[in-house]
Amino acid sequence: MFRLFQVFFLTLMLPQVVSAAIEIPVVYLKQDVPRPPVLSNLDPVPDDLGSAGADLGLADNMTTGKFLGHTYTLETIVVPEGGDWIASAKQALALSPYVILDAPSDLLLGVADLPEAKGALLFNATSPDVALRNESCRANLLHTLPSNRMRTDALIQFFVKRRWTTLALISGTHPQDQAFADSLKHSVTKFGLKLKAEKEWVFNADMRRNAAQEVPLFTQDLGEYDALLLADELDDFGRYIAYNTWIARPVAGSDGLRPVAWSDVVEQWGAVQMQNRFHEMTGRDMRSEDYAAWAAFRSLGEAVTRTQSDDPATLRDYILSESFELAGFKGRPMNYRGWNGQLRQPIPLVTGRAVVATAPLDGFLHQVSELDTLGIDQPESKCTAFAED
Amino acid sequence: MKLIAFAAATLLAAPALADEIWVTNEKDDTISVIDIDTLEVVRTIPTGERPRGITFSKDHSVVYICASDSDAVQVMDPETGEILHDLPSGEDPEQFVLHPDNRRLYIANEDDAITTVVDTETRKVIAQIDVGIEPEGMAVSPDGTIAITTSETTNMAHWIDTESEQLFANTLVDSRPRHAEFVKEGSELWVSSEIGGTITVFDVATQAEKGKIRFEIQGVHPDRVQPVGFELTEDEKTAFVALGPSNHLAVINADTFEVEDYILVGRRVWHMEFNADKSLLFTTNGVSGDVTVVDVAKRKAIKTIKVGRFPWGAALRPTN
């Protein structure tokens, strides 16, 4: 017993696990983009959307790191509208090979293709663009936000399960709306459901005043359907559709029942603890982009913890390996698709007040991972960048 | 004479003739008390908000309850169900363990990344120890020299020297560690990892990993096999492990670390407790809101007992 205590006091001097000091600098690089006006003044987009998730990731990693002698830093660079994105990207890459990106997809590719980014490890935390995970994929660019395809597959699985087989669609005119609408249509076909009617939202009247009069008429010629899909990714008109449709049907997509990476209504699997930490730090609820930035930073932290390395190539290999596993508070271990760099993850289907279901739903099976029933799957993938290395 | 004996028996019948299993119902703010002879709920006792961890004092004169959302450890008289007083527990106490000295309570404060040590007699905080994020699993070695906290997001077992109340080692485990126990006279520490799907076995003398237990259930996706609570039989040759949303217990050979059997129980099984002679095992099934009774020798579920919403912890109250 005495001997045991001696050992204790010796180890007390060295409170860490065997490891050398490692310092991991991370940059959060954001391009400010103008937002088109929307009908409602409710729910403004927070200025720190995304970057606040990186802040939480930093705090989480630091707590783990202090027991291991690992430290992390976070530098946030915001490029104003009209600013020099590429110059800022070079500045970021001079600071660190680890960059979390918050920008539209063409700008992401601009960074990934820089000579300075060769060997870097970039994370896309905000673009749901399917092409980035497909024909435009880059070996140094990983994706923690789910693609549009993952989200729409999740929603359509739910309809299959409920046997709501005939659908109608109203889509907005912004490119984001169109991309989401395309993805919805693709998922409808993939799971063998029927899209019976679709319309484009072309009103320019102020719907806060007369939605009750306009929407019933607008939806009258959609005919019979089981559920109404909305592609309104900028949050413009979608909120005025529910309860105003000509026939009594649920709405889903950008409003109503929404497939998301994260929402403040997720509470199972220990999620409450993370929601509390985030709320305490920011004073607001955690959203999908925050979650994706957190997941990017935590992925790095998990790789550093397990490999005890600060080498980008070592960390990338580990992150894309089968040993990698991120506990993301969504009930299953999450890892990356080694063939296109997308983080596999469950997709909660939420209303404003509750999680209705979490995809993949029971019964959707897959030979590799049930999570691969969501989004582009390996056999259909046009991404080749990951096969080359 | 016989009549008198009968009368005496009925007089005593109300409280505590049989041993009991006490189950905390996380989303009902109650404890369900199960009579082990009849396997029925005989009492339902109100508690503070979101009761989770539960343990009796060594002499079973009081029961400690983590009332997480009341930010308190409540001390209850098990006879009357009355709350005697609260202990200063730190914020959001989730799980705790009572030191063999029957005084010190080691409490995991889930929202604060802290382990709080409370003296149950003076009702004072003795120490607060910084640990990883979302501390949960708590254990004390049988000789009382080491306490363990596991942290769910940091993925570590933190080793606390109970003399100095300071950390002396931090060891990595797989994702989301939930439960820790010292076994085999304190020579091994077992830590379950819910998302990692494993139990890591440490050699206590060196804090080195000496083995890993893995699970595989036919027809259940590995992602859903999530080990949480576990207990060992009297001879410590067999372990029962709750596997969460796979709705099964695993039966483990505690020497070879191999799985010998799986037992189907209720939905999302988390924690468990034996009766006094360890012939019966009671599991808390959160989603189905019930307790499964398992015959330990036959390795079979023999009964399901409806309790409150989201049963979480379980503790044995012997009566003689």
Stretches of chain B where pLDDT is under 50 for at least 5 consecutive residues are 5-14
Q: What class, by secondary structure content of chain B?
A: mainly beta
Main sheet makeup of chain B: 4 strands, antiparallel
Beta-strand proportion of chain A? 15-25%
The overall number of domains of chain B is 2
Low-confidence stretches of chain A: 1-17
Main sheet specs of chain A: 5 strands, parallel
Instruction: Report the radius of gyration of chain B as a whole number of Å.
Output: 19 Å
Strand order of the largest sheet of chain B: 3-2-1-28
Main structural class of chain A:
alpha/beta
Helix content of chain B: under 10%
What is the terminal-to-terminal distance of chain B?
Answer: 24 Å
What is the helix/strand order of chain B? HEEEEEEEEEEEEEEEEEEEEEEEEEEEE
Largest interface: A-B, 30 and 36 residues
Task: Tell me the distance between the termini of chain A.
Answer: 54 Å
Order of helices and strands of chain A: HEHEHEHEEHEHEHEEEHHHEEEE
CATH top level class name of the largest domain in chain B: Mainly Beta
- Which percent band covers the strand fraction of chain B? over 45%
Tell me, what's the shape of chain B? globular
Principal-axes geometry of chain A comes out as: globular
InterPro entries (chain A): ABC_transptr_sub-bd_PQQ, BCAA_transport, Peripla_BP_I
Keywords (chain A): Amino-acid transport, Signal, Transport
Protein name (chain A): Amino acid/amide ABC transporter substrate-binding protein, HAAT family (TC 3.A.1.4.-)
InterPro entries (chain B): Host-pathogen_enzymatic-act, N2O_reductase_N, PQQ_b_propeller, WD40/YVTN_repeat-like_dom_sf, YNCE-like_beta-prop, YVTN_b-propeller_repeat
Report on the architecture of this protein.
The complex is a heterodimer of chains A (389) and B (320). Chain A has 2 domains: 21-146 and 263-347, Rossmann fold; 149-259, Response regulator (Rossmann fold). In chain A, 34% of the residues lie in helices and 17% in strands. Chain A has 10 helices and 14 strands. In chain A, strands 2-1-3-4-5 form a 5-stranded parallel β-sheet, sandwiched between helices. In chain A, strands 7-6-8-9 form a 4-stranded parallel β-sheet, with helices on one face. Mean pLDDT of chain A is 92; it is low at 1-17. In chain B, the strands form 7 sheets. Chain B has a 4-stranded antiparallel β-sheet, with no helix packed on it. A 4-stranded antiparallel β-sheet of chain B has the order 4-5-6-7, with no helix packed on it. In chain B, strands 8-9-10-11 form a 4-stranded antiparallel β-sheet, with no helix packed on it. In chain B, a hairpin with a 4-residue loop joins strand 14 and strand 15. With 320 residues, chain B is mainly beta. Chain B is built from 1 helix and 28 strands. Chain B is globular and about 50 Å long. Chains A and B meet through helix 1, helix 2, helix 8 and strand 11 of A and strand 14 and strand 15 of B.
